[in-house]
Amino acid sequence: MTQTIRTVPTEPIEGQKPGTSGLRKKTPVFQQHHYLENFIQSIWTGIGGVEGKTLVLGGDGRHFNSQAAQVVLRMAAASGAKKVIVGKGALLSTPAASNLIRTRGADGGIVLSASHNPGGPEGDFGVKFNTANGGPAPESVTSKIFEATKTITEYHILESHDVGLRTEGSFTLAGMEVEVVDPVTDYAEMMAGIFDFDAIRALFKSGFRMRFDAMHAVTGPYASAILEGTLGAAPGTVINAIPLPDFGQGHPDPNPIWAKPLMDEMMGPNAPDFGAASDGDGDRNMIVGKGCYVTPSDSLAVLAANATLVPAYSDGLKGVARSMPTSRAVDRVADALDIDCYETPTGWKFFGNLLDVGRVTLCGEESAGTGSDHVREKDGLWAVLFWLNILAEKRQSVAELMAAHWREYGRNYYSRHDYEDVDSAAANELMDNLRGELPVLAGHSYGALKVRDADEFAYDDPVDGSRAEGQGLRIWFEGGDRAVLRLSGTGTSGATLRVYLEALETDPDKMDRDPQEALAPVISAVDEIAGIRKRTGRDAPDVIT
Ligand code: G6P
Ligand code: ZN
User: Got the DSSP string for 478-530?
Assistant: First the structure.
């Protein structure tokens, strides 16, 4: 087979700016002439070249995954990469990729995914670059990549047939080694080293029933192998287990809206003991007990409070971190444990430094992400196994466990209201207007609530001293309630306004309220302050989580 390296003249393509989590666009955008190639070449430029480097490569199996993987391999080979470790079938979950980068000492990795966004020919596609620590590239790297997209004049690509990625093994591609690995093996081994698999096995043996909805995304093979294969969960525990290019026309986002069939089952008469789901690329999770949904913020707090039940964390936690809009439930646990609790901007990349230097062990976000220092990404299945390990030790139902948790620490009622595909100009105007009013809000009352303070969140990284500004508008009310507004950094059309609502309750008799009702005063206050309904033209949020 002749293998010629072609140098292809190209021009910068506008809008290739990596967002919260890589570059994410409609699939047809990525399929445009030169689009993917320009971005991949810009990654090589942004990281100072790929020559002699080892990369990890895989994706969540969505439409265009396989073709894109072939392009990345040909472009890595053309620019002199030493080796690419690729998941069989070009599949790798995001946490599994993070693990491989770390354990194989790779220089970085490329994950082909638009995470929880729908896939398919009209869906979304994405490319994320992770650095040698296994985590999402920090701003310092993504800004170099973006700069490169604006000045690119040519890219290099090997002319070759598609290489076979269906079987494990190694081969060379124009001098570059390609190692095809099973996407599950290393990850499953790592999980066995973290959790008490014997205890979880005993739990399942005792008749404990579980449902895991893989949403036709990448965690299917991982969950089937670990839950059913290794831990003895009943066959059929994992549903929608086969990854499909369009996720079976679904929206692979594990929340009560998009994982509604699972929610219905868990709230129904014949509910299993425990339910869980993960997203497109396997880094998000949803936890739900029989008749009891657990918010991601509460989940993080529960994991922190019970971490010593898990072998890998039996010595206790070094500290915890949460993104700013995440509820402060974990802060209350950190207080009780007398460990540090860090507040970072939205985006997993902000946890990287804290994890790298050992300041924190656990971290999490309201956006269904939880993780620890075992990798540098959030990890959906890990969170599910963490819960199983706790339940195996406690032998309580999820509802009992939550009730006990709230009794001990208080309950941070929490909800997020999303207004999707809002006209970008209107959304920006809303934010600009509120930003302008922040300094004068304190002291004003809205219904029953009085504003105590308001500001725009900025973060000074305590490890590298970098500063991230403009990370969300915060309004605190007297008594501890809080509202946060920010625009999503992961959408692909229009703007998504996120309104995060939180109300602290410490009265033991008021732990069982409907969150929307408990939050009603904050909801109406923030609408009055920011003019949400008026400015978006919407009567109600599109998604409530
Ligand atoms: C991705 C990142 C998360 C982040 C989320 C926020 O999933 O990996 O770390 O929390 O995006 O998305 P948003 O749409 O709110 O910017
Ligand atoms: Zn994801």
Answer: TTS-EEEEEE-SS-SSSEEEEEEEEEEE--GGGSSS-HHHHTHHHHHHHHHHH
Average pLDDT of the chain, as a whole number: 96
**Which ligand 1 atom is nearest residue 348's CA?**
9
Task: Note the pLDDT tens digit of each residue in 325-334.
Answer: 999 999 999 9
Tokens of 361: 């062990």
- Ligand located closest to 365 CA: 1
Q: Tell how far the Cα of 369 is from the centroid of ligand 1, in angstroms.
A: 9
| Distance from the alpha carbon of residue 418 to the mean position of ligand 1, in angstroms | 13
Return the number of other C-beta atoms located less than 10 Å from residue 446's C-beta.
18
What is the band of 492 on the pLDDT scale with cuts at 50, 70, 90? low
Of residues 79, 98, 115, 415, which has the active-site annotation? 115
Q: Which domains does the chain have, with CATH numbers?
A: 4-182 (3.40.120.10), 187-409 (3.40.120.10), 411-544 (3.30.310.50)
Task: Count Cβ atoms below 10 Å from residue 514 Cβ, excluding itself.
Answer: 9
Please give all residues whose beta carbon lies within 6 A of any atom in ligand 1, as ranges: 20-21, 115, 323, 346-348, 365, 367, 369, 488-490, 498
Neighbour-count burial for 313-344, b at 16+ CB within 10 Å, e otherwise: beeebbbbbbbbbbbbbbbbbbeebebebbeb
Dist CA 241 CA 222 (whole Å): 9
Whole-model pTM: value is: 0.94
Measure 116 CA to ligand 2 centroid, in angstroms.
Answer: 5
User: Separation of 28 CA from ligand 2 center, angstroms?
Assistant: 20
Please determine, for residue 18, whether its predicted confidence score (pLDDT) is greater than 70: yes
Which ipTM score applies to this complex? 0.96
**Is-catalytic flag, 224?**
no
pLDDT digits (tens, 9 = 90+) for 79-93: 999 999 999 999 999
Query: Which residue lies with its CA nearest to atom 3 of ligand 1?
Result: 347
For 27, the token pair is 């699939």
Residue nearest to atom 9 of ligand 1 (CA): 347
Phi-psi region of 236 (alpha: psi -120 to 50; beta: other; left: phi over 0): left
